[in-house]
Write a structure and sequence with these properties.
mainly beta, Jelly Rolls, six-stranded antiparallel beta sheet, about 50% strand, elongated
Length: about 150
């Protein structure tokens, strides 16, 4: 979709509201592929449903506190799917290391990242949720946050 130009009418779909979710509780995981499984602690899903703006573009930001039981990595990223049911629908943005946060080692770190996503269908609903993985050992995750902001 083209950008809104000066003099254009501004409609509700042009800028739907930003949405956010967070969970502070700590949990552990040992999965080496991205997912939502946990092995201990208080796992709470961090996910939101949003409506794509007229531009078909959003920016999502995520952050997490990470630590690993050894020198391996703990990673958090997001997966975006079509529809308003969390975890269902066709994947439109796969969870990858390149669009997430990571920390290697047994010291606490808090990291965040923003990711630009385009090509969404204006007016359609999408769901996005955080997923995690480790490269080895046991990862501990806490203070996760997800924010989706529609872009003009």
């Amino acid at each position: 979709m083209p950008d809104l130009l000066a003099g254009s009418r501004h409609l509700a779909l042009d800028s739907p509201p930003a949405v956010a979710a967070s969970a502070s509780a700590s949990y552990d995981a040992t999965n080496t592929g991205y997912g939502v499984a946990s092995s201990a602690g208080s796992y709470t899903e961090v996910a939101v449903v949003f409506v794509a703006p007229t531009s078909g573009r959003v920016q999502y930001s995520l952050s997490a506190r990470l630590i690993n039981s050894g020198t391996a990595g703990s990673l958090v990223t997001a997966e975006v799917r079509t529809g308003s049911t969390i975890g269902s629908g066709t994947v439109v943005d796969s969870p990858t290391d390149a669009t997430g946060v990571s920390h290697y080692g047994a010291t606490l770190a808090r990291a965040g990242i923003s990711h630009f996503l385009s090509g969404l269908t204006p007016g359609d609903s999408y769901n996005v949720r955080l997923q995690h993985r480790v490269t080895g050992g046991t990862g501990s995750f806490a203070m996760r946050e997800l924010i989706v902001v529609p872009l003009p």
